[in-house]
Amino acid sequence: MESVFTGILSTSIAAGFMVLAIVLVRIFFRKMPKNFRCLLWTLVGVRLLFPFSIESAFGVVPRVEIEQGSALSGQFYPGMLSEDMQPGQMENFGTKEQTQTENLNGDKEIRAEKFMEGDKKVLLLKAGALCWILGVFFWLGYFFLTWCRIRDQLKTAVPEENMGTKIYRSERIVTPFLFGIIHPRIYIPMHIDGENLPYIIRHECAHKKRKDYLIKPAAFMLLCIHWFNPCVWLAYKLMCRDIELACDELVIRKFTVQEKKAYSTALLSCSISQRKIVACQAFFGESGIKERVKNVFSYKKPAFLAVVLSVLVCLLVSLCFMTTRKEGAKSGTGLSMFQANGEAKISDSQPKGADMEENQETEGQANGADATGGFHESGSKNSVQEDRTNAGLQERTEFVKQWVRAFCNRDGEKIYDMYSEEYKQNATESEMMPTAENEYSFGWSSPWPVDGNLASIVELTEDHAEILYYAWVSDPHVSVWRQSLSYHMEDDKWLIDQVDTEMMEYICVLEEYEKAYPEGQINDTPMDYMKNGMGETLNNNALLSSTTIYQPLFKPDTAAVYLLNLLQNEGKVEVKADVDENGGKAKVTVEFKEDGNRVEVLMVQPYGENGIWVPQTYEG
Asked: What is the mean pLDDT for each group of 10 consecutive residues in the chain (620 residues)?
């Protein structure tokens, strides 16, 4: 329900801009034919009905995106973990030095506070969604009760023929109106007769011709959904007035001055004080009589230029407010509520590949000294070679770090600039990769691995890199992305040849498991819920939640499936738990049926015997 509410809220906010624009149009273009006003209100209804919009160069409204993550879904908190994590050396995460441990503890407290703040916002979202759905039911109930009450009042209406039109007369109504959906009927009070009756019948026939008996209930249905938005209430009220004005213009367009006076007299004789919200029918004498009478006497057949100008205004409003503004990823992706602040960073330490190549060169230097006896000469040659190797490695490392920063920060322009010309042609095939055609936008905004500090370069060669990213939502729940990067040097510039990103979810084979968790390591990695600051928050959420979403976390086997992002299918992934007799620990065996392999994980219960289970590295 929360996701539906956020979608409705986003759509309602975007439509609110359009409503305000039409209000300005009504003020500055008073002579616009009222049919065009009704057309504009119809476009507002279309905008409220569809929860998406098209980006265009004419759009003036920013893309309204209300997330459900950290505050409303899918947002992350940057700057969370160790500032000096060795890419590719997960064992150093948070444990390298005492200073890092202190920083991690401090970050964990800050992170916990941020998650608690996010929890409050999530609770606020749930409360808002509940209030919204209750309001929807209330106004729908009001609509149907009003409809049934009017229908009961009209059961005694007597049919008669007048001016070739079948009408129904009733003593239980005070003003004429058109009522019905499939077979609308004109209802007129018994006391109305004489010279006013023909004008009233013409007006109601105009409503019938314009299908207003369908438009007004449909508009009220939208009002029931967007009842919380004052702009929508304003739009409904003004639309009802403009419908009556449009019908008046349709009736009087060939009237003489004397006929206009008689029509105005009919309006005044049927005028009522309309204080309640009318959802089912359009009263002939509805509120706004003064404006309608003025419009009747001032009405002139619109000139061709006025019609053309009205068409242009409608087109301009449609282009500007039915579409959203194009925005590059660098300047942000739109109007996002409760968005996390901060910029992603990445460690300046060397990747694992650097240590390997440096060790090989050192060994080669030592061997050369032993074989030739000329240590200084051989050492000099190897030193030059080592410097060249290290320089190339540093360039590749820095290039990959730049990529990680740009990717985590969603800097589409920077990413596109790092593409090779060939890959720029193929990038459109991936909705995750930005292109010049889509103004460097991404296919989606969340979940997204915002914090580059968590990125781990697990493999680095001359033309290839493997990167692990970590992302989480407000449960909190960590997911792993594995990215394969191919690149080459061209004109002293490194360029991307291929990017393949795999979200390591629904893991069902050993190969996928090892990609997500190299060497099966959980401890001291971003997946370690006991050290990443999320375990306590997740436990509190699970204990306080009234839903069944968190129930799997209270059993070691199902908790392992959920937190390690395994496929929940016993036919493909079988998970068995052997709980320690002393409690608090369990050895969980995960058997992948497709390839016949298995892994073992230690599940612990650090938050008491009634708390959740979280994964750790099994070192048995």
From this structure: 79 92 92 92 91 77 59 33 36 40 48 52 80 94 91 91 90 88 90 86 91 92 94 93 92 90 86 55 62 88 90 92 65 35 39 41 41 38 58 86 88 87 74 66 69 82 92 79 91 90 91 92 89 85 81 93 91 92 89 92 92 90
Neighbouring C-beta atoms of residue 571, cutoff 10 Å: 9
Evaluate whether 354 touches 393 at the Cβ level (below 8 Å): yes
**For the chain, first and last CA: distance in Å?**
44
Q: Is 180 exposed, middle or buried (0-12, 13-18, 19+ CB in 10 A)?
A: middle
Q: How far is CA 17 from CA 20, 47, 327, 392, in A?
A: 5, 11, 18, 53
Which residues on neighbouring strands pair with residue 498, listed in sequence order? 486
pTM here?
0.52
* Inter-axis angle of helices 230-252 and 2-28, nearest 10: 40
H/E/C letters for each residue in 363-389? HHHHHHHHHHCCHHHHHHHHHHHHHHH
H helix intervals, 97-227: 98-153, 196-210, 212-225
Strand pairing class (54-56; 323-325): parallel
- The encoded tokens of residue 344 equal 């992603």
Distance of CA 182 to the CA centre of its chain: 38
Closest-CA residue to 69 (of 24, 6, 162, 111): 6
Distance CA 431, CA 410 (A): 13
**Look-up: residue for tokens 């060790």?**
359
Residue 580 and residue 594 in contact, taking contact as beta carbons nearer than 8 Å: no
480's CB contacts (< 8 A; 6+ apart) are: 468, 469, 470, 503, 504, 516, 517, 527, 565
Question: Taking the CB of residue 109, how many other CB atoms lie within 10 A of it?
Answer: 11
**Cα–Cα distance for residue pair 317/40, rounded to 1 Å:** 8
Three-state SS string across 22-79, please?
Answer: HHHHHHHCCCCCHHHHHHHHHHHHHHHHCCCCEEECCCCECCEEECEECCCECCCCCC
